[in-house]
Amino acid sequence: MPRLTAGPFRYKRYADAYLDTALQCAHVPLKQAVISPSALSFYTARGDCGYAREEFIEDLLREHETEVRRCLQKGAYKVQIDFTEARLAVKLDPSGNCCTASSISTI
After folding, report:
1. 11, 59, 86, 91: least buried by Cβ within 10 Å?
2. In the prediction, which pLDDT does 71 show?
3. What is the pLDDT of residue 35?
């Protein structure tokens, strides 16, 4: 997995950038998918870079909220948060203990 080497964490491109083209072609309301912040939380900061995990999580959640709001403001009918990493979590811990509501809410 790539590692963060410095903060703050920022998205390079927001999902609403793809809506511009799609909205020009669409004749129906559009749903925009965005990646779940828990998927991105797999990226970790190196301990020696001076970027605390707590700061990273705050930055990650702020960027996620910004992305969702931008999609809605640009005209997305709804925003779908893709949680595809759930399958990975079950593969890493087949007991299913990794995916309890309490463990997900702390990400």
Report:
1. 91
2. 95
3. 85
* Cα 90 to Cα 95: distance, rounded to the nearest angstrom: 7
- How many Å apart are CA 30 and CA 75, to the nearest integer? 8
Classified as helix, coil or strand, 78 is strand
Query: Bridge partners of 83?
Result: none
For the chain (107 residues), the mean pLDDT of every run of 10, in chain order, is 75 89 89 85 63 84 94 93 72 58 41
Distance CA 89, CA 15 (A): 24
Is-contact 51 59, C-beta < 8 A?
A: no
What letter represents residue 91's amino acid? K
Determine the length of the chain: 107
Asked whether the beta carbons of 103 and 94 are under 8 A apart, the reply is: no
Contacts of 51 (CB under 8 A, 6+ apart): 4, 6, 7, 8, 45
Alpha helices in 1-107 (DSSP H): 19-25, 37-40, 53-74, 85-92, 101-105
DSSP class of residue 3? E
